[in-house]
Amino acid sequence: MKQLDFTLSLIDRITRPLKQAQASVTQFADTSRQAFGQIGVGIAGVVGAGMAVRGALGPAMQMFDAMQEASARGVSDKAMKQISADALKFSMKYGTAAEEFIGASADIRNSINGLSDSELTRITGVASTVAKALNTTAAESTEFFSQMFGNFREQADAMGKVQFAEQLAGKVTYMRKEFGAGMADIKDLMEGARGVGINYGRSLEEQLAVMGELRKTLGTEASSSYEGFMSTAVEGAKKLGLSFTDATGKILSMPAMLEKLQGKYGASIAGNLKAQAELDAAFGDSSAVIKQLYGNVGTLQRHITELGGNDGLRRTQEMAQKMTKPWDRLMAIWNAIRVAIGLTLLPVLYPLIDTLADGGQRFARWMEMFPNIARVIGYAAVALLSFAAVGAVANIMMGVGKFVMLGWVGVWKLLTAVTKIDTAWTWLNTKAKLAWASVMKSLRGVLMALRMQAMLTGAAINFMSWPILLVVGAIALLAVGCWQLIKHWGAVKEAAAKTWQAIADGWTWLCDQFAAISPMDSLAGLAGSIGNLFSGLWATMKRQFAGTYNWIVEKLNLLPGVNIEAMATAESPAPSPGPQGLTGGQLKGVPRGGISRDINTKSQSYTDNRRTIGNVTINADRGMTPEQLREWQELQA
């Protein structure tokens, strides 16, 4: 008992401090984990709030940055105010980003010289509308407009920069609709021609129409082929005995050149090898331009006329509307609302942010000016971080301890599972042995049944083999019979010939016997015999019936006014008709004056009930068969 008390006391003295230390460490770990959780929640809240503010003000900040960049590139504040308003309207109308509109204004301002603020705003709107209509970027559209203004500067100045931009937009839209050329394609065509049309004084409409038609067949070589032809057109025409210049010395338009060539070679040069050879000799490789456009003078002239038409931005705006997606418009409107709100807040927030940034900059300068203060602040920060690290280490230790305990628990469960598996295996082994013994007992009866089945199967096979043996024997007998037939074929053939001869003689005799007898006469005689038989039978029946009938008639004739003719028989021939009438020559029951008196006295009381009946058709549902007809004829005879 003393030993037990000593052991328990020793265990208690040893484990109590350990438990207290463990409780302290656990409490410290829990406290530090809660502190870390609060710090994380606070930091997450601050970060989330900052991101929410930035997300709400994001579109406005992007708009503000674009405006600042455009201002830095030379756009005046007055123009920027109008451009920003137009950018928001354009964005909500076509579902684009407002900052792209502002960026396009800065690009146009730097590439087109001499633009006023109002011209800059309107041309930016035109270029952005063309970009939307042709499904391209504002930057690409701006680059194209800059190129066109550079190539046709005199025409733009004479017409007016805004009007030239609007007409250019209509031409680009027409090229897209009729020739399928995008902004980049048109730009490449104009660059590939190297300004040859401008140098020879040809209009933009003609150049676009010619290169648009050539692009259908020549592809990317359309512009270079056009350049080559225009460079050799005048000299080549001289070789053909023609002139491609007017009275002032300017080169003719492409339709006018084609008309002169048609005057020389006809309306078509298809199959005219001589004309094609002369064109090749005159214009070289650029003769492909003539060959492709030769039969399309009317179409080419129509394209030039329509490209020269001026309907403002109507066609471009219609195409831009078709390219606008409703969902993009909705999102653009939502961003425009955020921009409108954000632009009113940014003038207040940005100074505050600048103040905070200035404070941070000043604090950093103080750290440089007072290194001791910076050192103390650094020590305090390190201590704070160290304390936080201690809490983190405590949490790590507790986590490791729990992980280790989980590992031991897993091992223990594994060992227990192995023991349970061994027990289960022993139980299964015992049950399996018992089942095996039961199966072997049952198997003995099964084997006995199989043995009996095998015996019965052997007997059945023996019975089944008899038909097979019979078939084999029949085949053997057939083979023997065939051999005997072949062996005695001469005798068999002679016997068969004699048999057939006897059959033929018998048939000839039978035919001779029938030839002496007429089948129709025989049948007629047979029919007559049958008719006479039935006639005699009917006569006998008629005689037997006539006596009875005549007796009845005789008795009825005794009545006044009744006179029925008796039936004629073989013994008493029928009386011949005479003047005796129906009463046998005696007037019975007739008053004085006779029938004439009765007719005269009653003639006025008679009424004519006669009716006229038209055709009468009798449908016999069941006609008489030939046998019934012959029977009826015999009876009537």
From TrEMBL:
Coiled coil: none annotated. Keywords: Membrane, Transmembrane, Transmembrane helix. The chain crosses the membrane at residues 35-57, 332-353, 373-396, 463-486. Residues 85-284 form the Phage tail tape measure protein domain. It comes from the Bacteria. The keyword Transmembrane applies. NCBIfam families: tape_meas_TP901. This is Phage tail tape measure protein.
